[in-house]
UniProtKB/TrEMBL annotation:
Any coiled-coil regions, as ranges: none
PANTHER family according to UniProt: D-ISOMER SPECIFIC 2-HYDROXYACID DEHYDROGENASE FAMILY PROTEIN (AFU_ORTHOLOGUE AFUA_6G10090)
InterPro entries in alphabetical order: D-2-hydroxyacid_DH, D-isomer_2_OHA_DH_cat_dom, D-isomer_DH_CS, D-isomer_DH_NAD-bd, NAD(P)-bd_dom_sf
Organism: Thalassoglobus polymorphus
Protein family: Belongs to the D-isomer specific 2-hydroxyacid dehydrogenase family.
PROSITE patterns assigned: D_2_HYDROXYACID_DH_3
Record keywords: NAD, Oxidoreductase
Domain D-isomer specific 2-hydroxyacid dehydrogenase catalytic: 44-309
Pfam families: 2-Hacid_dh, 2-Hacid_dh_C
Stated name of the protein: D-3-phosphoglycerate dehydrogenase
Limits of the D-isomer specific 2-hydroxyacid dehydrogenase NAD-binding domain: 116-289
GO MF annotation list: NAD binding; phosphoglycerate dehydrogenase activity
Length: 333
């Protein structure tokens, strides 16, 4: 006989079979269910099936479209692990009264380490170095040293700042484009602030750490790639839709860009037929930059605590990304 779950207490944790939320949520009367690992949550029908009867979901980067949301009448909260929420239709959530939350301030060190790992790997010729050894193509190529090279950061928020301090430790010069800079940090670390075109023309490595907006969508395109230094490198651990991938492939094939490191993509998972998967000067990872043991623990804790706060009638504004101005939201609707 199937177990009956009380209404408004079922929470689904789609991408985590274990963690602190499995202890935190039940103490508040919420029943936590791990997601089905065999399901494809990028498929709308499978996502809807998985979330039937759920009042809340601890979500990853799977898409919550209006089509999906309208089939989930019990859903109260989408608690996104991390800070990105562009896969969620906020307008539909506003209409349906679904609160969208994120977990700010818990994964910036993880993203920064991943960014530097990609930078260093590409600087030393990976993944091509690894692939050549595996095929007995022993070839030694001298490459420019990272120290004294210039890193251009597009965005100097928590993540950009965490990358900046690590890059400074490597002896890199750090420049940045940031509309609202924290000048104490800028002055302390000797960061030069530039307009975007000047940053592109100056940086040996360009790393994206800005949000996705309608203005920034496809900001890295044929025109902007042409403004980057000959032989420079693009790293994107922010949002996939910031980059026009076709234009990036062209810039890499022409040699204008020497390499790219990508953790996020316009379509996720990245289709295997993408030209990016065939390029030996491109380092790929599957939207995992913000994921390490510490950030996983902290983001799941914050997501669970945010759900409980909403259930208890609180409004943790720092974590909420929609329903601006709403004062009468209720868990029991």
């Amino acid at each position: 006989m199937a177990m009956t779950v009380a209404k408004n207490v079922k929470c689904c944790a789609l991408n985590s079979d274990e963690g602190p939320h499995f202890e935190i949520l039940p103490k508040a009367g919420l029943d936590v269910h791990p997601g089905n690992r065999s399901a494809n949550f990028w498929n709308a029908d499978e996502l809807v099936e998985e979330l039937q009867g759920c009042c809340s979901v601890i979500a990853g980067s799977e898409p919550y479209t209006a089509q999906v949301l309208k089939q989930l009448p019990d859903l109260r909260v989408i608690a996104r692990t991390g800070v990105g929420f562009d896969a969620i239709d906020l307008a539909a959530c506003d209409e349906l009264g679904v609160v969208v939350t994120t977990t700010p301030g818990v994964n910036h060190h993880s993203v920064a380490e991943h960014t530097i790992a990609m930078l260093m790997g590409l600087a030393r010729g990976f993944p091509n170095q690894d692939q050549r050894v595996r095929t007995e193509n022993w070839k030694r190529i001298a490459r420019p040293r990272v120290m004294d090279r210039t890193l251009g950061l597009v965005g100097l928020g928590r993540i950009g700042q965490a990358v900046a301090t690590r890059a400074a430790g490597l002896g890199m010069k750090v420049i940045a484009c940031e509309p609202y800079p924290e000048m104490d940090f800028v002055d302390k670390w000797g960061i030069e602030l530039l307009e975007l075109d000047d940053l592109f023309a100056t940086a040996d490595y360009v790393s994206l750490h800005n949000p996705l907006t309608e203005k920034s969508r496809k900001m890295m395109n044929a025109e902007t790639f042409s403004k980057m230094k000959q032989g420079s490198v693009l790293i994107n651990t922010a949002r996939g839709a910031l980059v026009d991938e076709e234009a990036l492939v062209n810039a890499l094939n022409s040699g204008h860009l020497s390499a790219a490191g990508l953790d996020v993509f316009d379509v996720e998972p990245l289709p295997v037929e993408s030209p990016l998967t065939k390029m030996s000067n491109v380092m790929l990872s599957g939207h995992v930059a913000g994921l390490d043991i510490e950030s996983q623990r902290d983001t799941l804790t914050m997501a669970a605590e945010t759900i409980i706060a909403l259930k208890n009638g609180e409004w943790p504004q720092m974590c909420i990304q929609n329903l601006s101005g709403v004062k009468d939201w209720s868990w029991d609707r």
